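Two entries, shown back to back:
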Amino acid sequence: LDDIRESIEEMRYYREKVFTI
């Protein structure tokens, strides 16, 4: 479960980065 949460957090960060650019 923790691993999934970490994956979602990373994906969210990547998505935010793309949107920023």
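entry 2 starts here
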Amino acid sequence: APTRCLMFDSWFDEYRGAVCLVQVVDGTIGVDDSVRAAHSGKRYTVSEVGLCTPRRFPVDRLLPGSVGYVIAGMKTTREAVVGDTLMAVAAYDAGIPPLPGFEVAKPMVFASVYPVDTGDFDELNRAVEKLVLNDASVTVQRESGASLGSGLRCGFLGLLHMEVFLQRLQDEFYTSVVTTAPTVPYTVRLRKPRNPSKKEAEAMAAAEAAGQDPLILRCENPSEFPPAVEVEAYYE
């Protein structure tokens, strides 16, 4: 059977990149094998496989049913998406489907993080970048506020996820931050303009061509909300 491995966890090694924990469902996987990640389609060459005992114990190949680790030159854990399938290149190119059940993790809680001292933003940014290497489900976007200065808009899977991330930021990097109240994304349905301008008409046509509803807007930040007179309905 062609090689298919389920990735269920990963961590970042400073010298080797992302270390993926996998379950070998079909086939085998070993050093110098060429594989692809089914979700991204990126190609990798396996440099090491092994078992966790709990230390890493390299072996020649992982056999069907084995649970072990794979190092394949992934630079960050964002490439090692939990639930994705590592497949033999030949199987991927032949159109063999990946393992079922994969869904991309979507952040559902958002909060802004600012340094206590506005001059410490670069230090905060470096600390968050290092944490994200081991937690690819966190999304980060730079933003600037009138009162708090430069900060980072972070997306988390939930409130507990946010609390753990912020606690690690303090415990591991000794970074004191100011955190805004968490918010959840809202979907807004806009009223259809009676006499749309040329620019509005072009934007609506482009959205429809892309298979999207031009009147649906997703808002993750209060500053993104349109004027109330333009809104037909709000959905949480």
